[in-house]
Amino acid sequence: MNQEFDFQKIFGQFDIKGEFLSCTRYGEGHINDTFKLTVLNEGKEEHYILQRINNRLFREVDKLMHNIELVTDFCRKSVVARGGDPKRECLTLIRTKKGKSYYCDGKNYFRIYVFIEDATTYQIVRNPQDFYESAVAFGSFANLLADFDASQLYEILPNFHNTKVRYENFLKAVKNDVRGRNAKVNKEIDWVISHKDLCGKIVDKIESGEIPLRVTHNDTKLNNVMLDSKTGKALAVIDLDTVMPGSLCYDFGDSIRFGCNPAAEDEPDLSKVNFRFDLYETYLRGYLSAVGAGITPEERENLPMGAVLMTYECGMRFLTDYLEGDTYFRTHREGQNLDRAHTQFKLVDDMLSVFDKMVEATKN
Ligand code: ADP
Ligand code: GN1
Ligand code: MG
Question: Cα-flanking dihedrals φ and ψ of residue 104, to 5°?
Fold first, then answer.
């Protein structure tokens, strides 16, 4: 797999001291190709993250990287201002020798970040304390971005969390049935359609102005936050590709979607998948402690719906991708996107069964 890119040549384009040692696949993101790059500098090994940007999805890499440059600069200033360590507490882009934030070999686009050492991302919540820490990280990130000028950013993936548009795309995939898979998933298709009234629950409030649009992260799952391996404390929010206008309810909701499930996102055995209300309370506490007083009463009231919606939407996206032949989310095995859809649908059912409790817990 690694031989498909000439890593030594790519490394040579960037302004990095030292000699190329190795580059191996890394992490469990579904979108970009991520590698750990090891360099020998003055007798010491140094690490970087090299990513091939998914330019099938991010068609305008220049605009994407413009956003990331602005957001990483903004975060760095805030880390420095509070006396933190910018090499570990935010993402640092390495420039090319020509001064650009990415390199294109004519076909593929690459960027390099400083590797955040002695830190971990988790695929499943290990313990409530880690989840609490991730909530503080994402809450603080939202608080920080409140001072970021939204007009500077390109809306890099329009309608990213527009659930109504996602639903339309799902219906198109069902209609086109390009891989002839519909017949296998009639039950799942019916399930999505029977819940379609959920689609407008937050989008409509954003359109009417009841819920404000802010600069948000939009992909707040647990493996997009790095925790210090020694202290367990949150270090840095990563994966900034989707930072653009969005809603706090979505950012909160996406973390709940991923983290309140004690099983993997693609767990085939649904008896292991369930919504842990205690973890919901844990995340809520951490998030509210950090997000600041700027959260409006309408946003707060809609946090539980944000969780339901992000889970419904994500399940629908997995099922859409399954119907379209697994072209969007990276898969490692047959049926993986369908398994992912199943876990999300189970979680929505679970959440709806305790929705009143979620609402009660979220009140002031
Ligand atoms: P994707 O968009 O595909 O999800 P990410 O940017 O989230 O890609 O990176 C994938 C994984 O790589 C992360 O979950 C994390 O484990 C690891 N990673 C990303 N950036 C860094 C970094 N600067 N230092 C250390 N690990 C990183
Ligand atoms: C993708 O890039 P990654 O793996 O952090 C996806 C999210 C989904 C998530 C589901 C840009 O996130 O929207 O919620 O998979 N990112 C993009 O795990 O589509
Ligand atoms: Mg990621």
Answer: -115, 125
